[in-house]
Amino acid sequence: MNPTPPSPPPPLTPGTALVTGVTGQDGSYLAELLLRKGYEVHGVVRRSSTFNTARIDALYQDPHEHDVRLKLHYGDLTDANCLAKLLSEVQPDEVYNLGAQSHVRVSFDMPIYTVDTVAMGAIKLLEAVRDYQQTTSRAVRYYQASSSEMFGKVVEVPQTETTPFHPRSPYGCAKVFAHHTTINYRESYDMHASCGILFNHESPRRGETFVTRKITRAVGRIKLGLQSKLYLGNLDAKRDWGYAGDFVQAMWLMLQQDEPGDYVIATGETRSVREFCELTFGHVDLDYNDFVEIDPRYFRPAEVDLLLGDAAKARSRLGWAPRVDVEQLARMMVDHDLELAQCELTLRNAGHDIPSFVGHDQ
Ligand code: NAP
Ligand code: G4F
Questions:
Q1: Nearest ligand, measured from the Cα of 19
Q2: Rounded mean pLDDT of 81-98?
Q3: Lowest mean pLDDT: which of 53-67, 90-104, 297-311?
Q4: Residue with CA closest to ligand 1 atom 2
Q5: How many structural domains comprise the chain?
Q6: Domain that holds residue 121
Q7: Which of 18, 71, 84, 334 could form a cystine bridge with 92, CB 3.0-4.6 A?
Q8: Looking at the domain assignment, is residue 61 inside a domain?
């Protein structure tokens, strides 16, 4: 779909990376990428009463073995002390700040916690990096997970690195703070700190309460008779949906540049939630109109109506281009979730009592 991009710059010698949010969708793809490139990867994991490492289980190595390159540490972005300790313990060359309360609808229910993790978390981590650099004279490259949600009520289509922000949620406001703070640290302290303004990116590992995955999970279950309806909110919102596996490449590329900078990462195509329903239900020969119902509980106090990114800067400077388009993404996610539904059906048929899907969705 895209012209062949120019070759990326030659990689630096792989070093040590510290990744917050390693248990999330992007963290798992980024950890895979960095391990493939030969990095030692240190992931920050939140303490939880149940396991929260499912997305990185395939990468996990027994710490008792030799040559372990994925190392996990308990930590939390709300805890500045632990971040500072992690920096001196891990001595990273690159820090990727992906940790966040990342659900926009939930940020209206938990605005203060969202700001604590997204905004205050970023400045706490930047401070830890700055202190570490000052005391050790070692250079650290920092990546901030900025978001197209910052554009909010858009004044320009498509959106670029220079489009003004008008955030529409506590999450969006917090990301704007973290974004400007990252730029401020770059300008004030000469730090190699970059922001990726990533548009929505999805995958079979996407959290099940984000709309694409909520839809593809339902498609699989409806096709196999495990579910009869899918309740959604605003079907008219439009998003520029890409594949997470492509987008983490851009994060890494940003930190390989001589100069830090800010980059829009997007596919340049936008689809409505309704169109995503058509694509995914259509893939299994179903008509979404027969199954989708609107439930106003999924409406947001303020909505972001249209996101469409122009990644020309990333294309020309990083040599980055997406490989997976939204049709391929929809098929990939539905095929995965059909298999998951098949497993559920098999277990049910064998008499296992499987808890019903999604306790409290958004
Ligand atoms: P995700 O799947 O929701 O993962 C978020 C990660 O952050 C999880 O590992 C989570 O841990 C961790 N986390 C949450 N609160 C934390 C805290 N207080 N301290 C430390 N870690 C914490 O999100 P994602 O889709 O991978 O997105 C990665 C980053 O990119 C996020 O910052 C998100 O806001 C941003 N972003 C995402 C998109 C997108 O479309 N996916 C677009 C633009 C920007 P648990 O696993 O324990 O919950
Ligand atoms: O999938 P969503 O929840 O993603 P949203 O709000 O765009 O945020 C995601 O992308 C941001 C980048 O722009 C990230 F920064 C952020 O962390 C997150 O990854 O909702 C997409 C659209 C919205 O307009 C929402 O109103 O889908 C609409 N929608 C309609 N029905 C729904 C539903 N969203 C959800 N989650 N659940 C529904 O039932």
A1: 1
A2: 98
A3: 53-67
A4: 24
A5: 1
A6: 16-207+241-269+308-325
A7: 18
A8: yes
